[in-house]
Design brief:
14 strands, Zincin-like, 26% strand, alpha/beta
Length: 250
């Protein structure tokens, strides 16, 4: 099936290429150069370099011409950084600032799997000992906890920042950690619950700041810096390590 590509602008300087199974964020950089070019770095950061006089139509034509190349190159670069976490007995399972040891206990008498935290152990008692099923169980457990923790942190930061928001959704986004719609609804990637708490907090602040500035202007980053002074380090951490939290089988 051919991938469908659309060009959309969600904010003044934030752009996305939409395929039928993937959305890829990119930035546009204007300079004194004479031609248009696309660069995709390790980690999947996509940059469109264009001359000052280039138009939106010029960018769209470039994206259409390079649509397949962007898709495959992006996936290749992202995969290079996805070392991931192999789900198996005794694996280290990250949860915010902690790490638990995974213990899988087979119980054929059960109809569904149960997950419990016992001191430094995440215990999965399951009728099926299958890697894909165990990953599905862990994802469900992570998503439930992500909704609880992120909702709590959003409430706290929204009050401090003097903003409101709509509903909060937890998603399995492939290339984004969070987003804020024009209606004020917030979406967050469930993998954030696996990362250090200061990283989760940065993403929450980032999305709430969009309730004041729906762009990534200097004013936007000033708002972010007021509530997350180390946002540059947090942003860099996500770019470097964010893709290493995939749950993988052998």
């Amino acid at each position: 099936m051919e991938k469908e590509l659309q060009w959309k602008t969600k904010t003044i300087d934030e752009h996305y290429i939409y395929y039928d199974d993937l959305e890829i964020p990119y930035e546009v950089i204007r300079s004194k150069r004479k031609s248009l070019a696309i660069a995709i770095s390790i980690g999947g950061n996509v940059t469109i370099k264009i001359p000052w006089q280039a138009t939106k139509a010029d960018v769209i034509r470039l994206l259409e011409t390079k649509r397949d190349w962007i898709y495959h190159s992006y996936k290749k670069q992202v995969v290079r950084t996805r070392n991931g976490i192999e789900v198996k007995e005794g694996a280290s399972i990250p949860f915010l600032d902690k790490a638990f040891r995974l213990h899988i206990q087979h119980n054929s008498s059960k109809n569904v799997a149960d997950i419990a935290v016992q001191e430094d152990i995440v215990l999965i008692e399951t009728p099926v000992v299958d890697s894909d099923f165990i990953i599905e169980c862990l994802e469900t457990w992570y998503k439930k906890n992500a909704k609880h923790v992120i909702t709590m942190r959003a409430e706290q930061y929204a009050k401090a920042m003097g903003v409101s928001y709509g509903k909060i959704s937890i998603r399995s986004q492939k290339s984004r950690w969070g987003s804020c719609s024009s209606l004020g609804n917030l979406n967050f990637n469930w993998h954030l619950i696996m990362m250090p708490s200061n990283i989760l907090d940065y993403v929450v602040v980032h999305e709430l700041a969009h309730r004041i500035e729906m762009n990534h202007s200097a004013q936007f980053w000033q708002i972010v810096s007021e509530f997350c002074p180390a946002y540059k380090q947090r942003k860099a951490w996500l770019k470097e390590k964010g893709m290493s939290y995939e749950l993988l089988t052998k």
